Amino acid sequence: MPLVSSLKVCIANFILNAHSRFVANAVKMENTMKKISKFVIGALLALAAVTSLSAKPRTVEEIKKSKQVRIAVFSDKKPFGYVDENGEYQGYDVYFGNRIAKDLGVKVKYVSVEAANRVEVLATSKVDIVLANFTVTPERAQKVDFALPYMKVALGIVSPEKALITKPEQLNGKTLIVAKGTTAETYFTKNYPQVKLLKFDQYAEAYNALLDGRGDALSTDNTEVLAWAIENKGFAVGVESLGELDTIAAAVQKGNKDLLDWLNNEIVALGKERFFHADYEATLRSVYGKDSDADALVVEGGKL
Description:
The protein is of the alpha/beta class. The protein is built from eleven helices and eleven strands. It has helices at 3-53, 60-66, 92-104, 118-123, 138-141, 183-191, 203-211, 222-231, 257-272, 275-283, 285-288, and strands spanning 68-73, 76-77, 81-83, 89-90, 107-112, 129-130, 144-160, 175-179, 196-200, 217-221, 235-253. The strands form three sheets. It has a five-stranded mixed β-sheet, sandwiched between helices. The chain is globular. The protein starts with a helix and ends in a 16-residue tail after the last helix.
């Protein structure tokens, strides 16, 4: 082979080898940078999560100085927490929230919440108090601090009258509609694993699913399903009380003893004037009817 041709071949091979090494190194560098980026992003997200979860709660004095208390309530759980046709929050929980704000000497800012994120809004200090039909359970009490109860409740099951569910065993192999993060979800998951659960974030979505026939029944607090069935013809509550009798209470961020003590003192004081019976008359009597028994639901002074 002529010298010039041999030299050309050597140069070409050298260039090809150099290019291959360059490409390989570039790929390694890209993969390394991707790993570094993922690590950095993960670390930042973890830091953000820790920071948000450790957000400091406000004391009573800080709330008063801000001239506003932030209270989480439902916006779609009539008659306990809902937004009316005028865009105003109404209901049994809201009536209580208004009194809390009055006695603190501040205005109230209601924050719409879903059942599944009631703990989160407290942990991140997005609200000071949760008044969203919050059933007291040992598991939840590990994450939030509950005040004295102001209502008692059990689970209920509402279903179409033409295919009425009168006992939970009838739901085995069928579809039960529940809201995520509720005691109904927990109860049926634990005790009736053969029941298919159709879960929704919002109560309005859950009830619409029942109206549309996407499930055989719906379960949530008996106080609510009884009220809903009254307003929706063709449906009835075949199971009025299921599981143990539970209590509903206000909740604050874990460790916020200052606000918790204030709430407990407030509830005791309100009990002396039978405030929650007045709340019932103002927000629930028209729903449950003139012959309904307020004592079946109301708790005064935090005493069952």
